[in-house]
Design goal:
Helices cover about 65% and strands about 0% of the residues. The chain is mostly helical. The radius of gyration is 26 Å and the shape is elongated.
Amino acid sequence: MIIDDEDKARHLARALMSDITLYNSDKIAHALDPERELAESLEEGRQLFQARVAPRFYMVFEDAVHKWAARRRVRKSRRPSRTVISWPRIRSDVDARLPARPSARAT
């Protein structure tokens, strides 16, 4: 049965992109360019979409791919840097001169 409704076509496109994201989450997490890394999966989704919808809705899938890629880029840019800051350890001779902290449970 061919989908001949734009809302249903959009729903199918979102569902396919959701599945692609779910099944390729490891690749996506480490990908610099998710569209290029997942080209094979995206092409498979595109073919499935085109087999299920009327030709006039083919661009709906492309719109879904572009929106998905844009969200990936935004999330990647918001990701905190992985720089680890090492604070110097206070030397034990300095620790010995500091007063002891009072116990949280005073009985």
